[in-house]
Write a structure and sequence with these properties.
The protein is an alpha+beta fold. The chain folds into 2 domains: 185 residues; 140 residues, no CATH class. It has 8 helices and 10 strands. It has a 6-stranded antiparallel β-sheet with strand order 3-4-6-5-7-10. A two-stranded antiparallel ribbon has the order 1-2. The radius of gyration is 29 Å and the shape is flat.
Length: 349
């Protein structure tokens, strides 16, 4: 009974189909998916870092927005209703002037409240943005090191193969094989694959497939929370109507930005299940984001159980009647939004 040595075990005999040649092929196969994932993840991180730096520069405007609010607050009588911009002097420094951009559809007092809300939201978000930026930069550095390691390992494998083909006593492939295993462990440690294996569908995706049979109404998107709970989002009036009339169940949690047009959300709940407040707040932040609220903005979101939401005949598309509503205040946190987008699922219609 003959035995076939594992690639990299002992010396490399022969000139054709050597263990080194087999190792090169194996190494390339192992690294193909990993390198692709590394490149994709690196590009995504570079875009995220650029966006976070932009957000951080915006967050640094919080003191200026607060200052604008103070200037307008003490001079409300000098602000005409319906104007988009006003130039005012600092009451404490009359020789200094500042231009304040306003929303025409808001009253002067409402514009003051909006400036203070934005300043507060940006100030709260600045620390979170900085932490996310540092984490993203650290991860990008690790990915670049892994990419450099992959190039070095491939070069070593090719040199080993050339040494074997040239004849004579070739070096052992065992050290290189061990280096490859260490590299693969490092890739796994950052959450990236090293093979073509397709991940099985999540529990939420399986449930969604059974519940909707892949026939979601137009204008409805599907996300999952960090604990794999389904979150349905209606986009625009048509999607909102479909969400309420066709998908919303009595025990689900319905969400909508208070006194604002935009997305409706339905957080799937099971019978007798306790209310998951952390997931409700995260879902509320996503609904606010998809309703057009800017990152860092603090906003009130109305929520209630699905059984208290109904479509009344004669109401315009997207409008519903709600009873027993509750209100939570959330900040549109980009980390939460990014997490949902990473878990977004679009079944075939």
């Amino acid at each position: 009974m003959s035995t076939r040595p594992e690639p990299g075990a002992g010396e490399l005999p022969g000139r054709s189909k050597t263990a080194a040649a087999a190792l090169v092929l194996q190494l390339q196969a192992e690294m193909r998916v990993a390198n692709q994932a590394l490149r994709h993840e690196s590009k995504k991180l570079q875009r995220l870092i650029q966006a976070l730096r932009h957000d951080l520069s915006q967050a640094e405007q919080a003191p200026l927005l607060r200052e604008m609010g103070e200037v307008v607050k003490v001079q409300l009588a000098r602000v005409p209703r319906g104007c988009s911009e006003v130039e005012l002097s600092y009451p404490w420094e009359p020789e200094r002037k500042i231009k304040v951009v306003l929303q025409r559809d808001l009253s002067p007092q409402q514009n003051v409240d909006r400036l203070f809300r934005r300043a507060k939201g940006l100030a709260l978000g600045a620390r979170i943005i900085q932490q996310r930026l540092e984490k993203a930069e650290d991860r990008l550095g690790k990915l670049k090191q892994l990419q450099l390691g992959a190039s070095a390992l491939l070069q070593s494998a090719e040199q080993l193969d050339l040494a074997t083909i040239a004849g004579g006593q070739a070096p052992s492939a065992t050290p290189l094989w061990r280096q490859v295993q260490d590299w693969k462990k490092s890739v796994h440690a950052v959450g990236l694959p090293t093979s073509d294996r397709v991940a099985p569908p999540t529990v939420a995706e399986q449930k969604l497939s059974r519940q909707t049979r892949g026939e979601l109404p137009k204008g409805v998107e599907v996300f999952t929370t960090s604990s794999d709970r389904i979150l349905l989002i209606g986009r625009k009036a048509q999607g909102n109507d479909a969400l309420v009339t066709r998908l919303l169940r009595g025990r689900d949690v319905w969400l909508h930005v208070r006194d604002h047009t935009g997305a409706h959300g339905a957080l799937r709940m099971q019978p007798e299940e306790p209310l998951p407040m952390a997931e409700l707040l995260a879902a509320a932040a996503l609904v606010a984001h998809l309703s057009g609220l800017p990152k860092g903005e603090a906003v009130d979101v109305t929520w209630t159980l699905g059984k208290y939401v109904r479509k009344v005949k004669g109401l315009a598309a997207g409008q519903v009647y709600v009873s027993q509503e509750h209100v939570v205040r959330v900040v549109v946190d980009q980390a939460v939004v990014d997490g949902f987008y990473a878990r977004r699922n679009r079944p075939q219609a």
